[in-house]
Design a protein that fits this description.
By secondary structure, the chain is an all-alpha fold. It contains ten helices and no strands. It has a single domain, classed as Lysozyme.
């Protein structure tokens, strides 16, 4: 009898997880645990995810106001690079929300695994690239490295994967802008 009464709940849980947002699927337990310890009133994984995104957006806005960067561009890089996963690690060794390579992270002063430090370092790195290149070339350099962009005379490399990456980052940035996420916070 107990199993029959729990069956609808089981079906509901399975259907929710089957249709969960990809970003939420990549949101690792370590990040959830960190937030849960700091904010015990949050009760569900969705609450935790939404709280983290809110905290991340506030931090992005603060850092972008400090550096003059566009918060929409920064968040679109985070979405494309790590799908909002602060513990993300690529096959090539890039780490964190902004997927910084260890040498780049070191040059940007990133120490440890704190997501705030990673975002701050990624923003500084992107700001440096934008000082050297056009928007498209800077986004390409973020993906493939500034050396490759220099080989193409400071322009975006012609590779399909690089062009698709730049297009995706810019498209997400425009979608975020259309949602006016940062204007609501005072930007």
């Amino acid at each position: 009898m107990k199993w029959i009464s729990l069956f609808p709940i089981l079906i509901l849980c399975l259907s929710y997880s089957a249709f969960a947002d990809i970003s939420r699927e990549h949101f690792e337990q370590a990040a959830v645990q960190e937030i849960l310890e700091r904010f015990p009133y949050l009760s569900t994984r969705t609450d935790l995810y939404n709280h983290f995104i809110g905290e991340l957006r506030i931090f992005i806005l603060q850092e972008c106001e400090r550096t003059g960067m566009c918060p929409y561009l920064v968040e679109s890089l985070i979405q494309v690079e790590s799908k909002y996963n602060p513990k993300a690690r690529s096959k090539g060794g890039a780490l964190g929300l902004m997927q910084l390579m260890p040498k780049t992270a070191q040059k940007m002063g990133v120490k440890g695994n704190d997501w705030r430090d990673n975002v701050r370092g990624g923003i500084c790195y992107m700001a440096q690239l934008l000082d050297q290149y056009s928007m498209n070339a800077a986004i390409a350099a973020y993906k493939v490295g500034p050396g490759r962009v220099r080989r193409y005379g400071g322009k975006m490399p012609p590779h399909r994967s690089t062009r698709n990456y730049v297009s995706r980052v810019l498209s997400i940035s425009e979608k975020l802008k259309a949602q006016s996420i940062y204007e609501e916070r005072g930007s």
